[in-house]
Design brief:
Number of helices: 7
Radius of gyration: 25 Å
Largest sheet: none
């Protein structure tokens, strides 16, 4: 008898869960005009600073290391360490080889100086121009993405990138 009561209770719980899942599903399916981009909140710090920019820096370093060996990273580290001090700008005195330990604030500081670090680097001229354009476009898109409201011109500029 106890097993039958246990089974009945479990059956009721399962039915309750299924009923709630179906109710939730039909609640959302009734919204034909739902826009997923309006329904979600973008976490800029994790998406841009720690996600995309981290990937961009890692890809740039890997590309340069593959084409010009690890010595090119030493030159980049040296350039980063020799940037003069400026208020609210972190200087990377102790090399930047470990990107995994950087915070979002440090990535934002890196965004500010990366164009100057890569400018006139001892690499092919076409690659240098492409990298500089990439980081310039990134910085412009990053600035626009931080606006609270967008004008039509802002959106058109953002679309061009």
């Amino acid at each position: 008898m106890r097993n039958i009561l246990k089974f009945v209770n479990i059956f009721k719980i399962v039915n309750y869960v299924i009923y709630n899942l179906i109710l939730t599903f039909y609640t959302f399916i009734n919204f034909r005009d739902i826009n997923i981009y309006e329904a979600t909140v973008i976490d800029r710090m994790h998406h841009l600073d720690l996600g995309l920019f981290n990937y961009q820096i890692t890809y740039t370093f890997d590309l340069l290391k593959d084409l010009y060996r690890a010595s090119i990273l030493d030159i980049i580290d040296n350039r980063l360490a020799n940037i003069p001090r400026y208020p609210e700008l972190k200087i990377f005195k102790n090399r930047i080889q470990s990107l995994a330990r950087l915070t979002a604030s440090e990535y934002r500081n890196l965004m500010k100086v990366m164009i100057f670090v890569l400018d006139n680097l001892n690499i092919s001229e076409s690659l240098n121009k492409k990298l500089l354009k990439l980081y310039e476009d990134w910085n412009n898109m990053y600035i626009i993405s931080r606006y609270e409201k967008f004008s039509d011109k802002d959106l058109n500029d953002f679309e061009v990138f």
